[in-house]
Amino acid sequence: MGDAEIWLVIGLTAVVTYLPRALGVALSGRIDPNGPVFQFVACIAYALLAGLIARMILFPVGPLQETALGNRLASAGLALAVFLMMRRSVMLGVLAGTAALIGLTVGGVQLF
C-alpha cells in the first residue's frame, strides 16, 4: 500500500466517523424531544430494560444462578418497594435489593 492509499483510507474513515456526528448536530435543533418518535423510542428502551431484568431474575447466569428463585423475586420486590417509597431513588432501591439478596443467600434462607 502506498502513501496515497493510506491517506485515502484515513480520509474515508474520518468521513464515516464524523459525518453522522455532524448530521446529528445539524438536525438536533429541529427534533422535538416530546414528539411521538421519542416517546416510541423511550417505550422500546423501557421494554428492553424490563425484559433484561426479568431474564436476570428468572434465568440467571453465573453466581446468581446459585441463589433461590424466591430470594431473587423477594429481593426484586423489596428493591421496587423501596424505590417507590423513597421518592424514586434508584440508589436506595438497588442497595435495598442487593442487601436483601445477600442477607437471604448468606443466611441460608430459601423463601420458595
From TrEMBL:
InterPro entries: Brnchd-chn_aa_trnsp_AzlD. Keywords: Membrane, Transmembrane, Transmembrane helix. It comes from Azospirillum oleiclasticum. This is AzlD domain-containing protein. The chain crosses the membrane at residues 6-25, 37-57, 92-111. It comes from the Bacteria. Pfam families: AzlD.
